[in-house]
Amino acid sequence: MAAARVLLLHSGRPESVSFAQSVCGLLGAGSGLGPWPTHCGLKRGQLVLSDKPFPGASARLPLQPRAPGVELPPNGRGVDLGVAVILQSSDQTVLLTRRTSTLKVSPNLWVPPGGHVEPDEELLDGGLRELWEESGLQLPQGQFSWVPLGLWESAYPPKLSWGLPKYHHIVLYLLVISQESQQQLQARIQPNAGEVSAFMWLGPDIAAAVAGTEDGTETPKHLPQDLPSSVPAVELAENGGARPLALPTSTLLRTTPATADHRERVSSGTKFALTLWLQHLGR
User: Fold this and answer.
1) Calpha distance 61→95 (Å, rounded)
2) Euclidean distance between CA atoms 112 and 201, whole angstroms
3) Which pLDDT does position 217 carry in this prediction?
4) Using an 8 Å Cβ cutoff, are 1 and 12 in contact?
5) Residue 74's pLDDT band (cuts 50, 70, 90)
6) What is d(CA 81, CA 79) in angstroms, rounded to the nearest whole number?
7) Three-class HEC string of the chain
8) pLDDT per position as a tens digit, 10-49
9) What are the φ and ψ backbone dihedral angles of 6, each rounded to 5 degrees?
């Protein structure tokens, strides 16, 4: 049996979490929306979580729960561990990629590069590997810094009205700050067409508008009146080339619909990560 990837510290020893259990609930999170401050041990290939400080804890991060009231079917599996990279350029923009329409999970969603952490893989190494596999970007050693931003408890499909969840993850968002500009980074991007169909760079203003949209509301709240009607992006062409894309800003402000719908939008976890990024910039 594969080693558990997400562990909770109970009575002084780490215990695995089953697929059907709410990680936030086990950590004592209340009925509010969160996020909940959580003590974390970032181990090789594993994440250890606790509501109290413990030896070996390396960070105290906000943990955002999945939608309240979502019941998961028991299936003998544990909770999977994922990592995603918020790549910040030296001129303070961040990279988002659009997942291809042919992917079985979360097609057409705008997300940061990320994926599963391999067994015995350092979490930063896993994030940098996913960044390279999806965008072709390899960051030279000594030319970037990084900090863990936060944790997202994710179930897919994202709503019970879409069907019973088949996947249950804790996603660790890492902020990786490059010393290169957006222009320098973009010159080296070579997206993996099997996973990525487009990419774009968001500055703080647009990111704040996207992060300000709330699932379950008809319209976003407190949005600036001077938002541009579109955001520049790059779309992969069928011949393997790339072409500029004027992406309607309204697309980025969509919220998760009540029924299964794979129109492009920014994922809820990404909105949470953008909120954390903006808070980090504010420091």
Assistant:
1) 22
2) 10
3) 40
4) no
5) low
6) 7
7) CCCCCEEEEECCEEEECECCCCHHHHCCCCCCCCCEEEEEEEECCEEEEECCCCCCCCEEEEEECCCCCCCCCCCCCECEEEEEEEEECCCCCEEEEEECCCCCCCCCEEECCEEECCCCCCHHHHHHHHHHHHHCCCCCCCCEEEEEEEEEEEEECCCHHHCCCCEEEEEEEEEEEECCCHHHHHCCCCCCCCCEEEEEEECHHHHHHHHCCCCCCCCCCCCCCCCCCEEEEEEECCCCCEEEEEEEHHHHCCCCCCCCCCCCEECHHHHHHHHHHHHHHHC
8) 777 899 988 888 888 888 776 566 788 999 999 888 999 9
9) -120, 120
Question: Whose structure tokens read 């490059």?
Answer: 178
